[in-house]
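Note to self: the last two entries modelled the partners one at a time, which told us nothing about the interface. This time every component goes in together.
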Amino acid sequence: MLNTFMVYVENKPGVLTRVASLFRRRAFNIDSLTVGRTEKPEVSRMTITVDADRDQARRIEANLYKLVNVLLVENITNQPAIIRDLAMIRVAATHEARSHVLELANVFRARVVDVAPESLTLEITGAEDKIDGLLELLRPYGVLEMVRTGIVAMRRGSKPGEAVSARESTALDAADDGVSYSV
Amino acid sequence: MTDQKATPTTTKDKTTMTGASILWECLEREGVKVVFGYPGGAILPAYDALRGSKIHHVLVRHEQGATHMADGYARASGQVGVAVATSGPGATNMVTGIATAMLDSSPIVCITGQVGSKLIGSDAFQETDITGVTLPITKHNYLVTQASEVARTIREAFYVARSGRPGPVLVDITKDAQQGSCQFDWEAAKPQLPGYRPDLSPAPREYEQALELIHNSKRPVILAGHGIIISGAMREVRDFAERAGIPVALTLLGLGAFPASHPLNLGMMGMHGEAWVNHMIQEADLLLAFGMRFDDRVTGNLKTYAPNAKKIHIEIDPAEINKNVKVDVPLVGDLREVLLELMPKVESIDRSEWLDHIDKLKGDSAVRDIQNLPDSGHLYAAHVINDLWRQTRDGNTIVVTDVGQHQMWEAQYYKHEHPRSLITSGGLGTMGFALPAAIGAKVACPEAEVWVIVGDGGFQMTMCELATLVQENLKIHIAIINNGYLGMVRQWQEFFYDRNYAATPLLNPDFARLAEAYGIRSATVSERSQVVPTVEAARQHDGPMLINFKVEQEDTVYPMVAAGAALHDMIRRPSPIVETAEDE
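The predicted structure of the combined assembly is written out below.
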């Protein structure tokens, strides 16, 4: 199954390589990885989705913690979370198709970000399946180009700056798979 | 053993110093007395600043040797070993030694020079992205591009290398960072590692679960690993085993963690472990893994491994839990602390039935033991090692082995009573490890009697370090177990490749004359009666000695669990005595 990890890392050169190298070396298969800044300049945040069973997910978390630059790892796969992907889709839209495409964009709350004589470029943000849904409907018109960011995720409920501490996080996990360690 | 404590000198604090001088100053304050290194262009500023330092520099003959020496130093003393090299080829030559230290959790710090920071990425002369190269084989590594970063980086490197599960740390310092100057401030350069948490401890309910398993077990075995030695938990393991009445099987790197002569000591487990040990593990109803990681060389086929046993895993590295073997109760933390916590609640249980069963299994192995077979007039490696053990057992002896058949015979026939008395490359299995690692061990423990046991193949990989040995005036004895083959590979060819001895017969120099060329006393032995007198001659000699033991060429390490076979499915030494008995 796909597991989603939120990984807080020190904002230092080479940290992305360390994380990517770890996944390669331990033969874990990354589905998507995004990285960007956070509210703290010294901290970057990654959202990583990996195809892994429960034991593997536990080992991924433990291995991430072995990286000196990793600050906090949360597996939010089974937790309430906001998950967003962003896609830009260039779709063939000649004169007669244009209004249909615009209508679909409207229904999906996608924005038109570029218009050319033969095509429209849409920007859509949402959960992955929503974007998949729009793509499916656009395909008959001709998807000329598409790019997606990969997902970013945020746990629901906790207030800003009140990220669950590592100790609590691992204790939570302990309840569900019988392996725990406090950090 | 040297005492590695920060020296509280403050005279240089707040003065302006070059990055190179700061480097040596920080190493001194980390307690470093000696480094093993090799100079070159990009590290020259550091070497230039060395003359102002109290640190002794051992000039090696190859940078791989420097890393093995640092590793041997670390394993013999428990302190961080330090190796120094230049950029490019100097740094890449360290790779094997770093990987060796990584796989065996050995704390070393490698300092490499790097081209000037402005040149990085330009494919400059002797430029290699060594932090990129060593990323997967270091616990952590650093690229330092400014003098002002040197102090903190060195402090962090030592802290990371020696804490938690120890390991190698590489610090790559650009030439301009060595040449540049800044104000040195030791206090302000405290490690800042917000994400690094080496101090883990189990939850209370996990202790309860472990105790329940221990108290309900009738056939338990302790699997004792390297972690016992790293944690310094020898006494605690012994107390625990005695109190709970549980026999102790050891991994290769665990040898010495529990006294060989102790009645509860079973010996080594695994691919070339004692047969009774492997049988017991397979029959056990509880395995207590102490600081070991269920390496494939100790488990055999995982599908059939200890099928009836519950497993308790005491381990400092959470990433080891459930990696190879699914365990019932993991206790993640420092072994010594975990055992101290468990101990008061452990009940003393009579397990004599289980222990008697083990004694019966031992009898079968004794009749197959080569020591008990009639003397065929041939010299066997097992004879050499067993005799060497008899001669040196009472002393403060450190044996450093290489990798291969002789390593397994050493593990079987040299009975280690004390931790850190065996130094060997287990995880990576690095040929060429022995001689340089022994130099590091002798430098760390000058009072110890140091013996290298090495094959004729592995010796030739790093024998250039004979010059280092002479240069440093070290009394180290070298026993070459010379069978004219890459013996362990030949053994695999014998068993699994239809005796096709492809590329395993070795053309060797006359090792005795080679030693003499370095001014090292030497002898060649091919008869058993000469083993003890020659070993004694070496011990009495005031200097190093190399003994070329010409042993049986096609001898085999028994028992053997074939790769991928079940642990109890062992190839045994044919026993004429046993077979005769069965025939009748």
